[in-house]
Amino acid sequence: MPDPYQTLGVKRDASADEIKRAYRKLAKTYHPDHNRGDAKAATRFAEVNNAYEILGDETKRRQFDRGEIDADGKPRAFSDLGGGGGFPGGGAGGFKFDFGGGPGGNPRDIFSDLFRQFEGGPRDPFAGQAKGSGRRGPPPGEDITVETSVPLERVASGGAHRVTMPDGRTLEINVPKGVANGATMRLRGQGHPSPFGAANGDALVTIRFAKHPTFGMEGNDLRVSVPVPIRDAVLGGSVRVPTLTGEVEVTVPAWTSGGKTLRLRGKGLPRGEQTGDLLVTLEIDLGPHDPEVEGFFRGRPG
């Protein structure tokens, strides 16, 4: 049986995800349903399945890398015959058993693998098997990744939000109150279908905060500018300030300079048990022409 790494076309230090992707691609290419009557494809399909049965199982992969099992998954219980009529490391007429794991290794493990080979019959990774039988079921479908733009009002309150998937479907998600910008939600079974009849993949939805027409963001704090009539800036008064949950009335101290910032505690974005603030910048608004105000300044002594 060919080397499983060569069969799947991966390096010996390939990650589990790289091995899975290579297997899925090759299994789909050489699957009998797509290559009816093609003996070479059938052989290649069997080799791919056998390779993934070894490399797709972390325990078997380590056993193969240590030389405890061969490319067909069969245990190598004894060392090769050496000189002196015995086995290497055992002296003349001696024996050496290599069970993997060094001192303290359990010889039952390797014989258990051997017995499972005889009991299991032909390997078919696409046949459903009972839990604990050592067989692998067919791989699920691929996941779908998508980003969705969520209004700040929905971030502040939490609740339902509709997401359009790449295939045109529309799904409804429940946005947690105070969700972090860039957080990813997993929707089970909403990904691509499996080409082998297994479970669908998942949909991974990444939350992105929508740009707001009124508020700027500084972490959990929000920032907004509001106009203040010049009379209120000089004499004091009040202005209406927008927040994510509606307008509030804010007192403007007398003799307020343009550009002054007021902080409204707890009117920003929630995050866990804390909520940011709303920073309100007051901008002087001269308003329509006011002869009285103009006359006041013109009448002031130079």
What does this structure look like?
The N and C termini lie far apart (102 Å). Strand 6 and strand 7 (221-229) form a beta hairpin. The chain contains 8 helices and 13 strands. 26% of the residues lie in helices and 23% in strands. Residues 78-135 have low confidence and may be disordered. The chain has 302 residues and is α+β, with helices and mostly antiparallel strands. It has helices spanning 4-8, 16-30, 39-55, 58-65, 107-120, 152-157, 230-235, 291-299, and strands at 144-150, 159-164, 170-175, 184-187, 203-209, 216-218, 221-229, 237-241, 248-252, 261-264, 270-271, 274-275, 278-285. It has a 4-stranded mixed beta sheet with strand order 6-7-13-10. It has a 3-stranded mixed beta sheet with strand order 1-5-4.
Layout of SSEs?
Layout: H1 4-8, H2 16-30, H3 39-55, H4 58-65, H5 107-120, E1 144-150, H6 152-157, E2 159-164, E3 170-175, E4 184-187, E5 203-209, E6 216-218, E7 221-229, H7 230-235, E8 237-241, E9 248-252, E10 261-264, E11 270-271, E12 274-275, E13 278-285, H8 291-299
Parallel strand pairs: 1-5, 7-13
Antiparallel strand pairs: 2-3, 4-5, 6-7, 8-9, 10-13, 11-12
Helix pairs in contact: 2-3
